[in-house]
Design goal:
The complex is a heterodimer. Chain A is built from four helices and seven strands; from the N terminus they run H-E-E-E-E-E-H-H-E-E-H. Chain A has one domain. Chain A is an alpha+beta fold. The radius of gyration of chain A is 24 Å and the shape is globular. A five-stranded antiparallel β-sheet of chain A has the order 1-2-3-4-5. In chain A, strands 6-7 form a two-stranded antiparallel ribbon. Chain B starts with a helix and ends in a 15-residue tail after the last helix. Chain B is mainly α. The radius of gyration of chain B is 17 Å and the shape is globular. In chain B, strands 1-2 form a two-stranded antiparallel ribbon. In chain B, a hairpin with a 2-residue loop joins strand 1 and strand 2. Chain B has one domain. In chain B, helix 3 crosses helix 4. Chain B has eight helices and two strands. The chains are: A alpha+beta, B mainly alpha. Chains A and B meet through helix 1 of A and helix 4, strand 1 and strand 2 of B.
């Protein structure tokens, strides 16, 4: 490496030029990928909503802005209708709540779908977690339907891509039946070796439904 | 040194993980499954290629005393490019790799090759060196991931191997990573005397 530019002025100029080139390149890359990234985030969000409330129309979700709470982690939850929002004959099928709980090594975010009375859980979808792989992270594990040999022998196209079993079990359960005895939820099959993650998810779901019922459902009924 | 030698050395003789002991943190963290290991290997190789080529191309004008910041800016730029592309086109992989994508910036393999090779050699040689090192890194990841995924999860690439096999969970946790890498390092360095061990400049 030549020492030609070893002056103070040389150092500043070279570093500045490199940073400018870097900035331009990154700006260009950002512009190229920006749409795809936000489309992906939107897709993930819609995906969670569709999974937890399958009977809702994909254009039938209405965002409701509220102050942050157990059922609106980001300050919003959704009303779900069976027809698109601009259809006057639409009917409420339920609500999609955004819950969160402190897991073992991350804050777990869950979208919870409940029926129109906020009593029965329609389904849950964990949208973010960074729990221990092989233990807590199994909350998103999907049971593979075939083995590698099946694939190699051409019997099966790809590994089963159904819903994670841990999350699927919440579907159809009444929120008020989810009670803890000691440190365990009797109604929920826990994750092996991951009680903290299991309870974090269930606690978050239960708290979200309970608070939603109290703050939104009951208060609107009593007209406060 | 022949051009072929430059490339080949990065894979076996100077394997960045097993022989130079560089980039161990991301290696251990992302070798739990073959998919993650391969993804990380490709991402790091792309950054290595980019940074080696650019650093080599501008090696004549980089002032010696600010060379490290210059290298880091170049490396970080390529890492950010990889990150943006992964987030846009491979969101599942991006989610699995998580924190370790931005951490490629401080992957010692990349900085070490920029400092000790790219800044002193031609662009083409640097390209070959990056390719060799990248392949060596990816090979190390795949080897580790093959062992850890099959034993620790009972799957390969997500497909189950033996139905009913109760996986050895420790293999996908840190202790399993260290056990596996230790044994593999021993194997890769077998027959070497102390005098032969190369001394890397940073870990």
């Amino acid at each position: 490496m030549k020492k030609r530019e070893d002056t103070f002025r040389g150092m500043i100029i070279v570093l500045a030029l490199i940073c400018a080139a870097a900035g331009l390149t990154l700006g260009a890359t950002y512009r190229v990928t920006r749409e795809k990234i936000s489309a992906e985030q939107e897709r993930a969000r819609m995906d969670a909503l569709r999974v937890v409330l399958p009977e809702a129309d994909k254009n039938g979700f209405r965002e409701v802005i509220v102050e942050k709470s157990a059922f609106a982690t980001d300050g919003k939850y959704y009303e779900a209708y069976d027809k698109p929002l601009d259809d006057a004959t639409r009917e409420l099928v339920g609500y999609a709540l955004e819950a969160a709980g402190t897991g073992y090594s991350s804050t777990i975010r869950v979208t919870v779908g409940v029926d129109s009375k906020a009593e029965v859980i329609r389904g849950i979808k964990i949208t973010f977690q960074q729990e221990t792989p092989g233990l807590g992270a199994n909350c998103e594990a999907v049971k593979a339907e075939g083995t590698l040999w099946d694939v190699l022998l051409g019997k099966r196209k790809r590994a089963g891509s159904s819903q994670p079993w841990f999350q699927a079990q919440f579907g159809g359960k009444r929120a008020d039946t989810l009670v803890k005895v000691g440190n365990q939820y009797q109604e929920i099959d826990g994750l092996t070796g991951a009680t903290i993650t299991t309870n974090a998810v269930t606690d978050a779901v239960v708290a979200a439904v309970k608070e939603f019922k109290e703050k939104v459902m009951d208060s609107s009924v009593s007209g406060e | 040194m022949s051009k072929w030698q430059i490339f080949k050395d990065g894979i076996f003789k100077n394997n960045p993980v097993f022989v130079l002991y560089l980039g161990l943190c991301p290696t251990l963290a992302t070798s739990t499954t073959i998919r993650d290991g391969f993804g990380m290997g490709l991402a790091a190789t792309f950054v290595l290629l980019g940074s080696n080529v650019i650093v080599s191309a501008i090696r004549g004008v980089i002032p010696r005393r600010v060379r490290i910041p210059c290298f880091i800016v170049v490396i970080a730029t390529f890492v950010t490019i990889v990150e943006l592309f992964l987030a846009a086109y491979q969101p599942d992989l991006y989610k699995s790799l998580g924190l370790f994508v931005p951490l490629i910036v401080v992957n010692c393999i990349i900085l070490y090759r920029a400092e000790s090779f790219a800044s002193k050699n031609t662009v083409f040689s640097s390209f070959l060196d990056a390719l060799g090192m990248g392949c060596g890194f990816t090979l190390a990841l795949l080897l580790l991931a093959f062992i850890r995924e099959s034993l620790g999860k009972g799957t390969l690439l997500g497909y189950q191997l033996i139905p009913g096999f109760d996986p050895v969970v420790i293999m996908i946790l840190p202790p399993g990573a260290f056990l596996t890498i230790g044994l593999l390092m021993g194997f890769f360095n077998r027959g070497k005397s102390k005098a032969e061990t190369p001394k890397p400049k940073c870990h």
